[in-house]
Amino acid sequence: MQPIVSIANLSKVYASGLHALRGVTLDIAKGEIFALLGPNGAGKSTLINIVCGIVTPSEGMIRVGGHDIQSQYRAARRMIGLVPQELTTDAFEKVWDTVSFSRGLFGLPRDPGHIERVLKDLALYEKRESRIMQLSGGMKRRVLIAKALAHEPKVLFLDEPTAGVDVELRQDMWRLVRRLREQGVTVILTTHYIEEAEEMADRVGVIRKGEIILVEEKVELMRKLGKKQLTLHLREPVGTLPESLARHALQVGEGGRSLIYTYETRGERTGITGLLGDLADAGIAFTDLDTSQSSLEDIFVDLVRERA
Amino acid sequence: MKGVSMLNVPAVLAIYRFEMARFWRTALQSIVAPVISTSLYFVVFGAAIGSRVQTVDDIPYGAFIVPGLMMLSLLTQSVSNASFGIYFPRFAGTIYEILSAPISPLEVVLGFVGAAATKSIVIGLIILATASLFVPLHIAHPFWMVFFLLLTALTFSLFGFVIGLWADGFEKLQLVPLLIVTPLTFLGGSFYSIEMLPPFWRAVSLFNPVVYLVSGFRWAFFGRGDVAVGVSIAATLAFLTLCLGLVAYIFRTGYRLKS
User: Fold this and answer.
1) CA distance, residue A172 to nearest chain B CA (Å)
2) What are the E-state strand segments in A31-146?
3) Of B4, B14, B25, the CB nearest to A101
4) Domain containing A293: what range?
5) CA–CA distance, A40 with A18 (Å, rounded to integer)
6) Is the same domain home to A159 and A184?
7) Could you tell me which residues of chain A have a Cβ less than 8 Å from any Cβ in chain B?
């Protein structure tokens, strides 16, 4: 199936010389929830802002729903809703007016029924006549979401949707995202909270210093999450492993001084007993052993850590 | 299904209504202020000075200053409305929505500049109505009066829009109106005929573009101006073209809007 968002070889160099994105290529499938994970300054917002038309790309090609975002920007942008990271709202306008304004801006005729539904979904309907500046931070965040949904987008970008948001709103937000997915809306969110990606996403992409370094199904990542490694520190270095150990698929550590065994914690049998028995039979002695679990967090930290 | 290249009319209307809503919300400041200041000008210039000057070119002084007063408001209001209109979303960050919407630069300009021009025309007409309470007014060329009113409002709203894009702080926003527009207007024959000046200053005045606007506008009222009306029309159109070109250039380069 044709991806709904297709990014090819996208680069961005700001006037300041900052290289925010380097050759990013990414396809987002229709109807999926994609989490873009990365530390601050990795280029998440730049990526979103380019797709939405706020920042001009230096290089590369982006299509949304098959429409080029530059030459066919009207068709492309009509499909996109954006909830920005900052609480950038008007102050004096009323909630109802500002949400209706957004709908008009995207070229759609007035539809009070739709605006009403959006406001009710976001628990904003009671506040529709309030001026935005009278609202709390959480309510302003809801207003921004309502504005993004006012024109019935097919692709919704949520830039750090839960930064500084209370538990209730966070849960409301997830309910909303799920409901949107049921309606066939594609959701792309950025976050630096791993739990958020775990909780919501179908796929996770990790971005570091302007490069996408990993894109994977969340289930696949979770499978890795369920793995443990047993490291055996050997008394004597081994050269080649005896044939009798082949079935354990061991990795030999540096200099042959350790053996690494990977096993599923969720499996019924870990195979550790058998391994240790076979090791004893082969006459391989070890001085110490330890086990470690690779969490998504570890994977992430490992991936984004700067290697000096 | 609407064509992709068609004008996004709902978007233009959305921006226009949004800006007009701001105008009515601040009605006290937007409408009452010009009425009060116009009345003050009449008291000071009309009554105090007018009692000594009596007539200029056979026109009672009180009536003589009406076109200049309208121009003064038209110019300052157009510039300040349009510059604030586009600067504030930039300042508050809400510009993101306009940049991410399926609208062309032309539509953005139509919405913002259209609203700013409308406001200053409304204010201009309010001043005219206020003035008619003080002095009997007769407009010799109503068509040309409307022509100058519309084109001046439009031109200076465009100019204000450019300032709103250029400014990176509230100070700069005030700078151009304060240091350029207001002095040029006061020195542009709003309250006097440049015929009253010594020859040297009369020649200097001819470099002031506002002279042509005020003169043309006064001609529309009284059938007499400092310069030929054709020159005024040409100057107005030339300045309009200049501002249009400037705005077009800005959007082509993404200047100050997109990084």
Assistant:
1) 23
2) 33-37, 59-64, 67-68, 80-83
3) B14
4) 227-304
5) 14
6) yes
7) 14-15, 52-56, 72-78, 80, 82, 84, 86, 88-93, 97, 100-109, 147
